[in-house]
Amino acid sequence: MAHEHDHSHEEVPAFALEVPEFEFLRYEVAEGIAWVTFTRPKALNALAADVLREIAEVTEVIAEDPEVKVAVFTGEGKAFVAGADISEINALKDVFIGREFALAGQEVMNHIAALPVPTIAAINGYALGGGLELALACDLRVAAKKAKLGLPEVGLGLIPGFGGTQRLPRLVGVGRAFDLILTGRHVPAEEALALGLVNRVADDAAAAARELAQQIMKNSPVALALAKEAVARGADVPLPEALEIEADLFGMTVTTHDMREGTAAFLEKRAPEFKGE
Ligand code: CAA
């Protein structure tokens, strides 16, 4: 089943996607998992504008690829992503352009957060600044033991601008977020686990992400998408409204083939076969 999207095949199935050529990342789909690997290790995979553009493009590809059940983001070399590109930031002078810079990066992170499939950041090394912000836009984070995570922006005279001041406190609480944002320190993987900043720590982040993805993929794809939607939409509204969102989406599950199959399989003491319908 493993395959790479490849334009060289003559016989392209009707549903085949046009996958753009990427310069700063690699896109592969294998056994239901989309792997997005950042491939600019010499610059520690820093998020230059061109890289951000490619990430926005790859999220569109993922969203439209029916073969993708889970997406994993990871980096080549010793970094996951070492942040936004500091040389590009250094050239910024105008308050409006600075604001646009942050908004453009936030939009890319929002594209990741809005993906319909579960997403995992496989943090293989440094996840700093914009790199941690990208990981925070994913649903789950697994870190290699040697990984270091942080928001060091204040040491550059900046603040986090790709969502870090907002997604980090929502994930770990305001007090813990202040620790990271005000010190700018690099947090080792084990501490990140204790803080609730990552979900798993392992020798090999990609292997751990694959394992997690395989566990997730045993479940109903429709239920996964609705569960993700419930958590995401509920996070930003008052509880009574959030509970209504949950009830609406729960209501939708009972009309699905997957729910018929999942509950019947339980009652018949057999494994379910989900169709994602
Ligand atoms: N932007 C641009 N280039 C970067 C970069 C970044 N964020 N991070 C690393 N690089 C470049 C380095 O300049 C260096 O380039 P050269 O080989 O041309 O000199 C190369 O990547 C390798 O990096 P180092 O030599 O620094 O590697 P190291 O092992 O000594 O240190 C590190 C690793 C501790 C991660 C260090 O590179 C570092 O501190 N990087 C910057 C981390 C950072 O501050 N990130 C926040 C950026 S601002 C931001 O992200 C704002 C926002 O919220 C949107």
UniProtKB/TrEMBL annotation:
Q: What is this protein called?
A: Short chain enoyl-CoA hydratase
Q: Which UniProt keywords apply?
A: Lyase
Superkingdom as given in the UniProt entry: Bacteria
PANTHER family in the record: ENOYL-COA HYDRATASE, MITOCHONDRIAL (PTHR11941:SF54), ENOYL-COA HYDRATASE-RELATED (PTHR11941)
Note the Pfam families from the entry: ECH_1
**Family according to the record:** Belongs to the enoyl-CoA hydratase/isomerase family.
- What SUPFAM superfamilies does its record include? ClpP/crotonase (SSF52096)
Q: What are the protein's GO molecular function terms?
A: enoyl-CoA hydratase activity
EC number(s) per UniProt? Answer: 4.2.1.17
Under the heading InterPro entries, the entry gives:
ClpP/crotonase-like_dom_sf (IPR029045), Enoyl-CoA_hyd/isom_CS (IPR018376), Enoyl-CoA_hydra/iso (IPR001753), Enoyl-CoA_hydra_C (IPR014748)
GO BP annotations, alphabetical order: fatty acid beta-oxidation
Signal peptide (from-to): none
